[in-house]
Amino acid sequence: MNADSSRGIDFHQPIPLNYSYNRPGSIPGTITTIDRAVPSEITLIDYNQDRHQYATNLTPEECAEHLDTSSVSWVDVCGLGDRSTLEKLGRVFNLHPLVLENIANVPQRPKLEDYQDQLVIITQMANFTPQNQGFWLEQVSFVLGKNYLLTVQEEPQTDCFDPVRDRLRLNRGIIRQQRADYLTYALWDTIIDGYFPVLEVYGEKIELLEEEVLKQPTATTLAEIHRLRRELLALRRAIWPQRDMLNILIRDGHPLIDKSVLHYLKDCYDHTIQIIDTIEVYRELASGLMDVYLSAVSNKMNEVMKLLAVISTIFIPLSFIAGVYGMNFNTEVSPWNMPELDWYWGYTLCLAVMLAIALSLIIYFWRLGWLSNISK
Amino acid sequence: MNADSSRGIDFHQPIPLNYSYNRPGSIPGTITTIDRAVPSEITLIDYNQDRHQYATNLTPEECAEHLDTSSVSWVDVCGLGDRSTLEKLGRVFNLHPLVLENIANVPQRPKLEDYQDQLVIITQMANFTPQNQGFWLEQVSFVLGKNYLLTVQEEPQTDCFDPVRDRLRLNRGIIRQQRADYLTYALWDTIIDGYFPVLEVYGEKIELLEEEVLKQPTATTLAEIHRLRRELLALRRAIWPQRDMLNILIRDGHPLIDKSVLHYLKDCYDHTIQIIDTIEVYRELASGLMDVYLSAVSNKMNEVMKLLAVISTIFIPLSFIAGVYGMNFNTEVSPWNMPELDWYWGYTLCLAVMLAIALSLIIYFWRLGWLSNISK
Amino acid sequence: MNADSSRGIDFHQPIPLNYSYNRPGSIPGTITTIDRAVPSEITLIDYNQDRHQYATNLTPEECAEHLDTSSVSWVDVCGLGDRSTLEKLGRVFNLHPLVLENIANVPQRPKLEDYQDQLVIITQMANFTPQNQGFWLEQVSFVLGKNYLLTVQEEPQTDCFDPVRDRLRLNRGIIRQQRADYLTYALWDTIIDGYFPVLEVYGEKIELLEEEVLKQPTATTLAEIHRLRRELLALRRAIWPQRDMLNILIRDGHPLIDKSVLHYLKDCYDHTIQIIDTIEVYRELASGLMDVYLSAVSNKMNEVMKLLAVISTIFIPLSFIAGVYGMNFNTEVSPWNMPELDWYWGYTLCLAVMLAIALSLIIYFWRLGWLSNISK
Amino acid sequence: MNADSSRGIDFHQPIPLNYSYNRPGSIPGTITTIDRAVPSEITLIDYNQDRHQYATNLTPEECAEHLDTSSVSWVDVCGLGDRSTLEKLGRVFNLHPLVLENIANVPQRPKLEDYQDQLVIITQMANFTPQNQGFWLEQVSFVLGKNYLLTVQEEPQTDCFDPVRDRLRLNRGIIRQQRADYLTYALWDTIIDGYFPVLEVYGEKIELLEEEVLKQPTATTLAEIHRLRRELLALRRAIWPQRDMLNILIRDGHPLIDKSVLHYLKDCYDHTIQIIDTIEVYRELASGLMDVYLSAVSNKMNEVMKLLAVISTIFIPLSFIAGVYGMNFNTEVSPWNMPELDWYWGYTLCLAVMLAIALSLIIYFWRLGWLSNISK
Amino acid sequence: MNADSSRGIDFHQPIPLNYSYNRPGSIPGTITTIDRAVPSEITLIDYNQDRHQYATNLTPEECAEHLDTSSVSWVDVCGLGDRSTLEKLGRVFNLHPLVLENIANVPQRPKLEDYQDQLVIITQMANFTPQNQGFWLEQVSFVLGKNYLLTVQEEPQTDCFDPVRDRLRLNRGIIRQQRADYLTYALWDTIIDGYFPVLEVYGEKIELLEEEVLKQPTATTLAEIHRLRRELLALRRAIWPQRDMLNILIRDGHPLIDKSVLHYLKDCYDHTIQIIDTIEVYRELASGLMDVYLSAVSNKMNEVMKLLAVISTIFIPLSFIAGVYGMNFNTEVSPWNMPELDWYWGYTLCLAVMLAIALSLIIYFWRLGWLSNISK
Lengths: 376, 376, 376, 376, 376
Known about the structure:
The structure is a homopentamer of 376-residue chains. Chain A is α+β, with helices and mostly antiparallel strands and 376 residues long. Chain A is 53% helix and 13% strand. Chain A has a 7-stranded mixed beta sheet with strand order 2-1-3-7-6-5-4, with helices on both faces. In chain A, helix 6 packs parallel to helix 9, helix 7 runs antiparallel to helix 8 and helix 7 runs parallel beside helix 9. The longest helix of chain A is centred in the C-terminal third of the chain and has 66 residues. At the B-C interface, helix 8, helix 9 and helix 10 of B face helix 5, helix 6, helix 7 and helix 9 of C.
């Protein structure tokens, strides 16, 4: 199933920079998400070291019975679907109204909320657009309980979590020996690592723009640089709060997260630092590109002006001379009226003077170094 | 009743950036607000879980008897009216002179003041201008006591608090089961959520400007960008201190605010963060727009210069040739005086040379890529 | 008495940005102030709740006897006068040499110094220049002791403290019931509130410049913007440390300042925040103005270039055609030599071709939108 | 052996700004480094005050027996070689999978990780490119244990650590009397001091660019400035986290690092401060250079425009006059048709008028100061 | 003796921005200073309240005997001389190798190092260049012991400390009653106060540049502004760490520094704040100057373009008309061929039309306000 069709994402539109909000004055916990064409798809993976059970197309009520078992239950809700499903989920998982509001009214700024027996983590996932030319951000919410993890994805099934599902199914690594907190780490780590390939694309974009801006700056280049800055702003805004959230978790710990998992979260935190670090460098480069662009345009204009000045400066005096000898003063009424016209060498002399003027001007410009620049 | 007429807000004027102040050296607590044409309208809502009483057009003295009852009394003063009413209010609610000064001399920077048995909160509310093209800021002051909440709005009744009044009247949500602290939250939350639709308008403005600046930059665009930056500054200035105030309340708590309400204030605080976050992104975009504008203007000038240079460079040499053969040297006195004029193919040759020059220059410019840019 | 004449302030000069300093290596406490033409004028106000005594033209020694009385003694030294008076003051008030140095060698950066039994506060007062077009800064130093307050003003009597003197004389407000700490607050508050009207003037200046920069940017505008930025820098530098000083006093308290007065200082602190807040906004606007200026100048140049390009592009080809038919090729030696000259409709055709070229170019420019811009 | 050939570093390519990352969702600890053409070369130096043993071309297993001896064992792995060697190393040194991932997947952001009995330090070494025109960054990882130090260099043997090897071999200084912690300091100090000569090269580059930008700004200069800024960003990014790491070590200490060594690390820390300080200054200068460049280009264009304006303004009116007297009005049909043509002094007068116009314009431009600028 | 000759300081060279460093990998404590032409000159002043002994041209060994006496011994080493003298000094004063390295390898970033019984202070002194047009920085290192102070100056005797020497000799102020800690203060204060006159020169430079940039911006102005920014960066870099050092000393105290001296250091700290404050203001002004410069150049170009446009726009149509009537169409073959040439009022009419066109264009430009600007 294609994510685009479900919400009609227009990839030519700039990434939205507003957050979602309720009508001012509405009751806290109000869900204002519009009902989607595609209903939520609820998948359950129930596992422990020995067992791995996979069920799909569940209703919220069917999930309820798995929550109190000692095995780890991962309930994955793909797509926000309709309001009633979300409200049922809220009842089954006993979610605070404000939590449900944050899960349903997307996009929210990533945040961490601690409700004694539940840890709520709101994150943003960076997905590539179909032709890999940009990215779009999808909210993924985690509700971590004692034996279960609820994840709610803004859009219907896209494949970002598949490597983790495979690790669960095939019992690769240590994931099956661990609890829901490790699963939370594994999924969040997948989300965060997903920013790296996006950054790589932007790194290449910057290099292309650097070349273009110096060689052939056009109005399109300008629009590209501005768009790049805008998208880097959006990326930074999505990853920055996740860094803070990880930092708080590592610094303060949480009863639902085992100490051994904190070490993995530390690695995850390092990755957010690397991502932010790279984004900041890209932002500085993009900002520098704008300066370079302006300078390059000025440079080009300089060349144009030089050409105009050289041609004009050479021919204007010559044309003047030609104009003088095109005057119709009557040579017959006075020996002082344009006697040059009747000289034997008049024309030749005239051309010689013109040539002399032209040559001296050319030498002058050559010395100023203007001629070499133009021919370039 | 229309807010504009009461103070004659001129929506074509830029938003004022000064704060109100007393004449230097005046006695602390002096009220310098000018008497308004429209008197303050005092409304009382007295409620508990079972009861809801609404009274309007009260005098300050009539409010006094409600303050000590166990039910929650919300005294809402709409419009600053005249000085004497304010002073009476001060006596009835036992306000410190400096508090009264802050309530009356608008605008003040939002602030939080703690007077043992009263918590004073000065906020700024963002209202849309009539045609939704901009916003104006209105000071709303809260005085939270044990069983009462006094709110003072700068302008006579506008409808921003109506959803809360409805929730009180219709007993929607949990508001009637809660005390004055929850009411304070509900109203403040309404004020803060009111910044979101304003931001949305500015987000659209930025997108329009982005398009305009790249396609058709004019002096009006420039003025628009500058005005946008100015208004974002004003917005930031209004919301930033409110974030700090919420942070202090959440961090330190307050005897008048119940712990359960702090959780709601936390949500409110998250909203201020989202608003500030968005404002900062808009400010960066607006700042980038100015760079883009300058570059786009340079770009346009470049095109103009190229056209001028191409036309001049092609025709100036040709005109010179025509000028040469317009000279009146006497061909009869010398065979060296412009013999070309008498050649059989003279004119044809002359035109051919001109054509050759023109063509070679056109090819030269085409290779430089100047012709394609101009035709664009 | 006029302040200007006493030190010959030149209001056309930019505000000095250097601080005063002693010759490197000189003994700590050296007074390097030059002797002024106008001697210091020492005034004493000795008051308590019941009594108000005013004496003027005192010598430092005459003040001494009032210092140990239980009533509050305000010794106000107006003008730095000559060195010997200052040294006498130092002896009478038992000032540390470094304190005397800071009082006498103006200007100093505002600072707070704690000498067990004395609290020294160095502030900067913003006064309007005669025509209210700008401001100049005057250092006012406070030495707060147990029962006395010494204030030293850089310049002879200007009227900034008169409202406080009136409140003392007429026993308005609570000032006569309070001690020297409240008097310090009252005077300092007067100084700080004096920045508000100055800011108001700058707010208006910015609005005028905003209009000017978009409509008629000239070199004078540029100089005005630069001057504005410089003066805002000077203002910020004067108020910023005063905010820090108030913050330290409120946070840490001081034995010489009563707790009830701290509340008033908090209000004073809020005012410094408002002032700094406004200055920062003005600085951002002024900085944006520079960008707008550059863009507006580029815009104007663009218009000029367009006019030049339009006129040149239209007439240069026409002139070339006219030039061609002004050539003197001998039509008699060859039927190929400018036969057009002898055609019956030659001239008419020639004009028609010219008209056609001109019209098509005009249509071309009209489509590019260049003509509308020029006519504007 | 040449470092370049081994990974085909292209020194004309800009320095990569991305960090290495695993495919999102892969198992923590996955090594994704590609197998290199050149296998890792493992060298062991085993020393104490009396003994110095050097062995090369070891296998990871051969190193194992040295780790538990009381002498200090420095195992130096040059080049990342193939995956299996790295995995063997991980087993021999008992490395946490995440540590191995950080060592193998280069480049990582420098970081410090504390595993009770091992201290892991990831650093970046700045090496000169062959012609000393730039630098490339190589990751060097330290694993400090009780009696051993494992270093893993990204590239096969380059000579940066040779001075330390010599000090060990020749027993210079106090290095042989110290433990593995001092060795770690000595090597890290060598890495950090290696940034100084790189900075020196950039200092010289900036001075060359400063001269070039003022005298002969070309598009190449622009590209150079942008490249410089990019490379300074890369340098800052490599050294900044190393400063933080040193700061944490000095502030908190570590059981594996003796107190006496902390003093040396403090010196090392001071060097990182000096390096960062210098980079920041260079960055500010480079950023200023861009402004200067733009201004210089504008300046040059100004000169070109002035020349064009001077020549055009002088000759255009003159050409017009010549054009007027080149008109063919029939002087015979009317005494008002160009009678000047038949005047005795007509031509002379005409030339005189032209000369007068030209001279007065030249004087006008000379007064404006335009002529002096052009001749420059 | 002249400081310049000793190290051949070239005052036309920009101030070096690199710090000194040892070859990477060299033994900690290595002295890499080159041997100077001029040997170090060691001076001793041994004093207490009653006694003042001055000795010059001592060897390090001769100083040793004074160190343990109860009087204060100030050993002043002027010039770094040769390596052996420095090493002897290290032995006599029992300096840690890293301290000696910092003293000898100049320049170092100012820093504070605490070796139990010695406090090492590395500072930078700002000296004027001979013609007072700029400054150069000289490292002065302090080693404060119990009864002695060792100062090492980078260059041979310059007179900056003379006022302190005079105060010691003539027993002025309280310096002879104090210990080595007060002497350290007195000297360091002299160094810091030495930045004030340098700043004063830069303040004047900025004012000159402000005038120049608005009136007559040239390429030299541009170079001056860039140089100014560079030098302010160098100044800030020298004073900033000294502020931090003073702050640490005041905050934490030190066993070798008496509490009464801390008060004087506080004054010294205030001076560093004033200096940094002023530098920051200057830096903002210099940065603003660059904007003003660019705007002023654009402004000038605008004027040039306007002149060109006015002249061209007026004369190009006129020349075209003249060109038309210079065409040689044969008026005899057709009545439609330029009949105007044979009209009685033809020429007069033609001139009248030209005049009308010229006048209407002049009026048009006058209305646009272009003419007034040019004449300026």
